[in-house]
């Protein structure tokens, strides 16, 4: 296996902590190769929170899991690099050997998995989970783990005295999610990846977890990537948002641009598909059709069979990510100007329009 | 009985289906719990209503009680004014046909080794709605058309694994419709379906209500879904086994009267960065949800409630009482002050 550093074709800038370049992942299945992730590129900057939104089958979880190389055996990275900056060195995670990979996971990049319920070993106590994780990653002194886990549990508003001795089944869903977040912070990683961190939690618990993540990020300054189908979570926490569809990035933008000035018809469709609780109900509508089969992708733009803006040219070839009329914003759509026209660029005007329609 | 007039939906005269002071106990290893306590709900013909609440609030149990799947420990389930649990024979069979359930998980609620045709034709034969294969294919095709799965011939031969989540849920709805129900109880029917197609399923249910005058009770944890679905109807908010607020949807969500409803509305994240980051919070006195095994005395919400008054809220269980024109609330303070919780919380 190549040593760390090898395969890193470029050096990252000082404030870039992670950069994914042209990543493609294929699953081998009996029906044929599934192109789960296709040519995905994005940067994560220091202290930044990046939301990756998309529906089931959009490739967001496959992509996130591959960042820490925990993909199942049937998945193979066919192209691309996952560059990580450690000190002054740039490492390609895609080419790390086993022991370096083990060090990278958790100490550099921790992952909090979806379904908090199943992330624990059910037959050992929370304290043993902390101890196991600490040991596996080089914290050899039990006292260190004890002190650190106590601090972390207090930080996530849990009582260490009560929680450390408990077994997973004795904790509520919200408490488990807090414990997992605390556990992910054990080795002070600069990057945390969360997969659907609030899914399946009650509203008041969701709110508590969102507020907690916001506070921890301010206190500890880590960078965060979270994967969610829930747009409102992105609206709450993200600085930047990436929309994925059929395995690829269709839009990248700052959070307000994505929500108020989306330029890809799919992002626009997603936003219109979510009803609101406060303010005008507005015009809400589902997107017609369903996501494509990842084995037999449609010709041209993968969204063209569902897209209201479609023209013949869309069926010829898949467009690149094109720079749009806002800084740091691109969309994989040749019709983005028409989307822009329909939406308008002024935030207030959009809100007004929505209110008037309701 | 309260008559609620809301928008274009008018519930009047005799309700179609009604829970009257229903309590349902379950035995657990830790002791008996009351999953639902003294719940009264009356639904008129072609009403669209939502029950919302967090896990453990009793909304699913209430749905199962309405569908007659579980027997109340006390209280009654009335259908067209008659006690369902005293009915027998034909009358009971008629109730069973009249009330259908659509389940949450479209991956689990359809038999994986049956084609769509087999799934839809079974109830048709069972309830003598069709005789012979040709007639059944005709009716099943019509059902598929109604739920937007066209052309039906393409779908009749398919197995569940060949369908998307949204398509499966449409098949579940078609199956429920096959016996011409009067009431559909849909328990979290859109929760497991992709965001981009949820609204179309809700619209389908609303269209069926308009077309067939079916009464639909949607059970959901998602307030935004509830608001959309019941925008011309009512929302009931449940907490620890009781209905704490019940009324016209826009009132309950737009200007909640119960401090718990107010806390939910304030807490819910929304798909609008400016709005969601500037929402006013309702600070609760405790984050902990009490166990159903050890329910607090008086109002079950009192240990968490910012409007808590000692000697009142911890002593007496508040009744669901009318406040304003089109809603009821179970809160001593809100009912006494006769103003919605948002105002009380601001003044607090």
Number of helices of chain B: 13
Low-confidence stretches of chain B: 1-10
The major beta sheet of chain A can be summarized as: 8 strands, mixed
Which shape of chain B, going by the Cα principal axes?
globular
Major β-sheet of chain B, in short? 8 strands, mixed
How are the strands of the largest sheet of chain A arranged? 6-7-8-3-9-10-12-11
H-E string of chain A: EEEHEEHEHHHHEHEHEEHHEEHH
Structural class call of chain A reads alpha/beta
Tertiary shape of chain A = globular
Give the helix level of chain A as a range of percent: 25-40%
Strand content of chain B: 15-25%
Arrangement of strands in the largest sheet of chain B? 8-9-10-5-11-12-14-13
Helix content of chain B: 25-40%
Question: Hey, which two chains have the biggest interface?
Answer: A-B, 41 and 43 residues
What gyration radius of chain A follows from the Cα positions, in whole Å?
Answer: 21 Å
Low-confidence stretches of chain A: 1-7
How many H/I helical runs of chain A? Answer: 12
Mean pLDDT of chain A, to the nearest integer, reads 88
Write up this protein:
The complex is a heterodimer of chains A (358) and B (348). Chain A is of the alpha/beta class. Helices cover 33% and strands 23% of the residues of chain A. Chain A has 12 helices and 12 strands. In chain A, the strands form 2 sheets. Chain A has an 8-stranded mixed sheet, sandwiched between helices. A 4-stranded antiparallel sheet of chain A has the order 2-1-4-5, with helices on one face. In chain A, strand 1 and strand 2 form a beta hairpin. The longest helix of chain A is centred in the middle third of the chain and has 18 residues. With 348 residues, chain B is α/β, with parallel strands linked by helices. The radius of gyration of chain B is 21 Å and the shape is globular. The N terminus of chain B is likely disordered. The interface between A and B is large, with 41 and 43 residues.
């Amino acid at each position: 296996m190549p040593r760390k550093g090898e395969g890193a074709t470029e050096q990252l800038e000082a404030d870039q902590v992670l950069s994914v370049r042209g990543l493609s992942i294929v699953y081998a299945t009996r029906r044929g190769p599934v192109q789960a992730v296709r040519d995905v590129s994005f940067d994560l900057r220091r202290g930044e929170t990046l939301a990756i939104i998309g529906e089931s089958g959009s490739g967001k979880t496959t992509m996130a899991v591959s960042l820490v190389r925990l993909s199942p055996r049937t998945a193979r990275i066919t192209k691309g690099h996952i560059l990580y900056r450690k000190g002054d060195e740039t490492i390609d995670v895609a080419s790390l050997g086993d022991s370096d990979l083990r060090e990278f996971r958790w100490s550099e990049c921790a992952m909090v998995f979806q379904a908090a319920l199943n992330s624990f070993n059910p037959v050992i106590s929370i304290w043993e989970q902390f101890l196991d994780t600490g040991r596996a990653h080089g914290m050899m002194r039990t006292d260190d783990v004890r002190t650190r886990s106590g601090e972390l549990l207090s930080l996530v508003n849990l009582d260490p005295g009560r929680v450390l001795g408990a077994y997973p089944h004795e904790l509520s869903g919200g408490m488990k999610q807090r414990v997992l977040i605390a556990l992910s912070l054990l080795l002070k990683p600069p990057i945390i990846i969360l997969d659907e961190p609030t899914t399946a939690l009650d509203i008041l618990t969701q709110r508590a977890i969102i507020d907690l993540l916001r506070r921890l990020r301010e206190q500890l300054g880590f960078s965060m990537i979270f994967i969610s189908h829930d747009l409102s979570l992105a609206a709450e926490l993200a600085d930047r948002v990436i929309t994925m569809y059929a395995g690829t990035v269709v839009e990248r933008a700052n959070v307000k641009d994505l929500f108020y000035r989306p330029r890809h018809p799919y992002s626009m469709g997603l936003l219109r598909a979510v009803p609101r609780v406060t303010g005008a109900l507005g015009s809400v509508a589902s997107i017609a059709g369903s996501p494509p089969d990842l084995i037999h992708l449609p010709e041209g733009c993968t969204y063209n069979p569902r897209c209201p803006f479609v023209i013949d040219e869309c069926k010829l070839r898949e467009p690149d990510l094109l720079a749009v009329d806002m800084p740091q914003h691109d969309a994989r759509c040749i019709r983005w100007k028409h989307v822009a026209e329909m939406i308008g660029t002024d935030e207030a005007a959009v809100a007004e329009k929505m209110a008037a329609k309701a | 009985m309260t008559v609620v007039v809301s928008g274009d939906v008018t519930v009047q005269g005799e309700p179609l289906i009604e829970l009257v002071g229903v309590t349902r106990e379950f035995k657990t290893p830790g002791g008996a719990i009351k999953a639902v306590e003294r719940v009264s709900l009356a639904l008129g013909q072609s009403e669209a209503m939502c029950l919302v609440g967090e896990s453990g609030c009793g909304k699913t149990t209430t749905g199962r009680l309405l569908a007659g799947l579980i027997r109340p420990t006390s209280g009654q389930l009335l259908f067209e004014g008659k006690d369902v649990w005293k009915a027998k024979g034909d009358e009971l069979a008629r109730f069973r046909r009249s009330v259908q359930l659509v389940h949450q998980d479209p991956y689990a609620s359809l038999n994986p080794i049956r084609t769509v045709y087999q799934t839809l034709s079974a109830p048709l034969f069972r309830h003598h709605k069709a005789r012979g294969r040709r007639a059944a294919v005709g009716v099943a095709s019509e059902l598929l058309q109604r739920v937007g799965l066209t052309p039906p011939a393409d779908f009749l031969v398919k197995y569940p694994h060949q369908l998307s989540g949204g398509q499966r849920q449409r098949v579940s709805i078609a199956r429920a419709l096959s016996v011409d129900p009067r009431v559909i109880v849909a328990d979290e029917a859109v929760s497991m379906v992709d965001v981009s197609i949820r609204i179309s399923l809700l619209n389908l249910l609303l269209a069926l209500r308009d077309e067939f005058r079916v009464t639909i009770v949607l059970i959901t944890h998602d307030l935004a879904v509830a608001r959309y679905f019941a925008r011309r109807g009512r929302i009931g908010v449940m907490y620890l086994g009781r209905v704490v607020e019940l009324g016209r949807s826009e009132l309950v969500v737009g200007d909640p009267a119960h401090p718990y409803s107010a806390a939910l509305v304030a807490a819910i994240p929304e798909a609008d960065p400016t709005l969601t980051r500037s929402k006013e919070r309702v600070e609760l006195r405790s984050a902990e949800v009490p166990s159903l095994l050890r329910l607090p005395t008086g109002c079950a919400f009192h240990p968490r409630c910012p409007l808590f008054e000692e000697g009142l809220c911890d002593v007496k269980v508040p009744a669901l009482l009318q406040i304003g024109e089109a809603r009821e609330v179970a809160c001593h303070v809100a009912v006494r002050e006769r103003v919605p919780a948002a105002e009380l919380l601001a003044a607090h």
